[in-house]
Amino acid sequence: MTTVLDLKHVSRVLTNEAVPVTLLHDINLTIDHGEFVAIVGPSGSGKSSLMYLLGLLDQPSAGDIILHGVNTTNAPESVLERLRLEKIGFVFQYHFLLPEFSALDNIMLPMRKLRALSHSQMRQRAEELLCYFGLKKAGHRLPGQLSGGERQRVAIARAMANDPLFLMADEPSGNLDTKNADLVFSLFERLAKEQNKTVITITHDPALAARAHRQINLVDGQLVTA
């Protein structure tokens, strides 16, 4: 397998407090193409801090984060922004779809920002994603006209718009009922199996985490199992 993410001795410390707070300590972790990985651990264990680092939304206090061979540590924000747009798809607990845009237009937004495709190519890509995620007839609908499960599937389709190296999903089933939560994780399994996509998700649900290929267990900012 080809490595997507490689963390070498990564720590994250908040130094603007009266007493420095260590969020993550000496994390060594490799994640490969096609892996479906669940980040688990009790509240306050460092899951969100790790997600912010993996998503290049934050910088480590020590160590290196290597994304597909590129060391991102201390890279300029302009470089990080481009990497986030091209290489990472983000899915959150809340869908964050723009309410005034149709499902199709919401999916096209990352492609418009990247500017790598013509309008017709972007539209075709968005339509293909809608079909892939079982939303063929939902393209013209506004988010308010969709169910909660449909909105989250549109959000996943949007995250896939620029064909990223990996998806970063933060509690993607947190606002869903059991049926739709199961569907979201089935989609993640399908992306990993059919498209060799790396999927990294944070979840508090042990049953859903067990469906991942591997669990990354954090306790008090330290890696317990990977």
SSE map:
Blueprint: E1 3-14, E2 21-32, E3 36-40, H1 47-54, E4 62-67, E5 70-71, H2 77-87, E6 88-91, H3 103-114, H4 119-132, H5 148-159, E7 166-170, H6 178-195, E8 198-202, H7 206-209, E9 214-219, E10 222-225
Parallel strand pairs: 3-8, 3-9, 6-7, 7-8
Antiparallel strand pairs: 1-2, 1-4, 4-5, 9-10
Helix pairs in contact: 3-4, 3-5, 5-6
Sequence of strands across the biggest β-sheet? 6-7-8-3-9-10
Q: Major beta sheet, specifics?
A: 6 strands, mixed
Give the helix/strand class: alpha/beta
What's the helix count? Answer: 7
- Provide the β-strand percentage band: 25-35%
Order of helices and strands: EEEHEEHEHHHEHEHEE
Provide the low-confidence segments as ranges.
none
Q: Helical proportion?
A: 25-40%
Mean pLDDT over all positions: 94
DSSP strand count: 10
Distance between the termini: 17 Å
